[in-house]
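Here is one such protein, fold included:

. . .
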Amino acid sequence: MSIKKLDKQGRWRNKTVSFRVSPEEDKQIETAVRLSGMSKQDFIICCLKKRKIEVTGNPKVYKALKNELANVLNELNRIEAGNKVSQDLLDTIHLITITMQGMKNGISKKEENQ
């Protein structure tokens, strides 16, 4: 039996939803979740409801970005002359770029308000 949990709107979350993914899909989901700074549950719910995912810079997100950029660098060092670039790597680079741009815009907005 699943544990009941109260969400931000005061609703009980006592239903469990599960599905199968490939190891590659799992890796992509885990990367996106780490870069978002959200819990996996909240991230998937936002995606399913087509809500905008807003990343708030914090130490957890910065560490995830640093680690993912290190992984990208390792992959790029492995690739010879741009051959055999996997779509997963390109997706990760795109996700990192979007995250960094969003964080930059968030910082700019905070500076304008000061």
Confidence is low (pLDDT under 50) at residues 108-114. The radius of gyration is 17 Å. Residues 5 and 11 are 8 Å apart (CA to CA). The longest helix spans residues 87-113.
